[in-house]
Amino acid sequence: MSKQTKRAVPQMLPRAVALAAAMVAMGQAAYAQDANEADSDVKVTWTNTFKYGAAFRLDDQAPALVSGPTAANADDGDRNFGKGLISNRIDLLSELDVVSRRGFGARISAAGWYDTVYNRDNDNPGFAGGAMPNQTSVAYNKFTDKTRDINGGMVELRDAFVFGKTEVGDMPLTARLGQHGLVWGESLFFAVNAIAGGQASYDIGRLAADPTAQAKEFVLPVPQLSAQLQVNSDLTLGAYYQFQYKANRLPTVGSYFSISDTVGEGAERLLLGPNAYAKRDADIEPSDSGQFGLQAKWRLDETDLGFYAIRFHEKDPQQVVRLGVVNVAPGAPAPVMVVMPTSYYLTNHEAVTALGASASHSFGDVNLAVEASVRHNQSLASAGHAVDTSGLAPPGVIPATDNLDNPAYAVGNTGHINVSAIWALQPSALWREALFIGELAWNRRLSCEKSCAALDPNTTRDAVSLRAVFEPTYRQLLPGLDLGVPMAVGYTPNGSRSVLGPFGFPAEGGGDFTIGLNGLYNQTWRFNLAFTHYYGDAGTLLDTTQSFTYQQSRQDRDYVSFSVRRSF
Description:
The chain has helices at 3-29, 63-66, 76-79, 145-152, 195-199, 204-208, and strands at 42-57, 84-100, 105-115, 153-168, 171-180, 201-202, 219-220, 222-230, 235-242, 269-273, 276-280, 291-300, 303-312, 318-327, 337-347, 352-363, 366-379, 387-388, 411-425, 433-450, 462-478, 481-484, 487-492, 510-521, 525-535, 559-567. By secondary structure, it is mainly β. The protein has one domain.
């Protein structure tokens, strides 16, 4: 057991139990119910879901991931956690739905959580030889405020929208206005490679904690207007316009699944060497306007076809380093001027367009789907090669970089294909029912159009990866108990290094494997126990040339997790 675990267990239990009791009381007082009589014109339902979860690290830190020059900006998530407890968390999801018989209504939901692990000191042992930590606002063994706030406890609004239906001619029209999520296409696990990755932002940190989950379970809603027009029984048209930009929520810097100390909430500076660093400047954020899409869904005999056109701003950031001329010998008789990084910022590219099509068809017990798309003005993996040199000349001589017309990172055109299967297996000697869900994702760099010198040289033109979940289920294994045994694997073959970067696919030549138990007791209590193993050659996010390694940066972070939840 780590020193963090030993120190925290006596302190965390009273707070966790007290908060759990309060949340259970809230749930019991606000169980799902109709607020009106059965014959009322309006139905009100309020549901509260309480969840407790804990997770434990199984391995010590691997020297290859926490030492050496490439670890300086990629090791905080590893160093901050010894073997033992890495999460002790309580969640509450509250959902209120108001629906009239005429099809009008509203929905509002909010989520809150508290994790004791992120509200105390962590296990970081400090840095030998006077080396600096990445953070400046707190001590080396504390989480930054943003990391603590996002992981340690917060309440956030999820859905908040009104909806209604009417008719245009004799064609039904439905619409939603307000904060909600929208996911088109046929992607399951690799939304980043599909139309859905441009439509919606995702909680990547939560998704990393559950490799058996589909990406759509972790959508972060945004304010938007969406509508759907049913032209006839075979053709439906859809459209949306978003009023606010929201990026993917990457694992916060220093949290357990973080593999970068400079990208994500909580990042504060880029270490350059002994006593040298580049501070983090204000990020360049995309405009809240300019994100919209059109969809056509066509039922052709037994096949569902989809056609998509969307415009969006990138959900994952690019890191750009600003160069300057610095006197590295202050106080010396003669200055020693050197060109070096003086600061860096994060930005998300604007105005990407994508055109796509999909098809889905069932063959007996198997549903097969394919989605293909092309993107124009897509940012490409650039890692440490995106550089702003405007500070090397008098103001205005060299244009400063931005996230649209003059990017420091590479931009080009890409092609994408996702192939997925959902297979309900027939009973056998090993199971009465079982489900297989799998997806293969492929992408290709079609061309590079801007700042091509910044393109990460470690990328390959083509990249492919797969993820699958197989779960046999045993009903009434014991009285009142249904039990599933999910087994999940993610894998990326050797030689496959996505031009979108290493965050969307598992590590090259490796990936992850999860096996667990999913239980449902008396149709009320749900619980999960899972073991996750990361495999592949260990390597930090970047190599000595500041290019992506595409290796397994979580190779030493195997963990066991447990959760139990109930809705009231």
